[in-house]
Design a protein that fits this description.
- Helix content is 67%, strand content 0%.
- The chain is an all-alpha fold.
- Keywords: Membrane, Transmembrane, Transmembrane helix.
Length: 103
């Protein structure tokens, strides 16, 4: 009787361990597929291609990378800003006026 009980407990323990292993492997594969197909991963690949080298980022940096704009994609020039001539002029002359702050 005790031997049969021990066998059943052993079978349940082995099946529980096997089930945990299968779930762990399955969840890791799903996580890898999710990471590779996410927009953040796509943006990371685009930035790495533009830089010509692989980049290492954490999840926080990947979120920030989603908002980074490629300078080559900008089609607006400084002259296209309508109005605010004095502000544009001050933006151009401020570095000259405060050159001592930038050295």
């Amino acid at each position: 009787m005790a031997k049969r009980l021990l066998q059943e407990v052993l079978i349940y323990a082995v099946s529980a361990v096997f089930s945990c292993m299968v779930l762990t492997v399955g969840l890791k594969r799903i996580e890898n597929m999710r990471e590779n197909s996410s927009p953040a991963a796509q943006r990371k690949r685009e930035i790495a291609a533009r830089l010509g080298r692989p980049i290492q980022t954490n999840s926080y940096e990947e979120v920030i990378a989603m908002d980074v704009v490629n300078p080559d994609d900008l089609s607006v020039e400084f002259s296209a800003i309508g109005g605010m001539e004095k502000i544009k002029e001050s933006l151009v002359t401020t570095p000259d006026s405060f050159a001592h702050n930038f050295t």
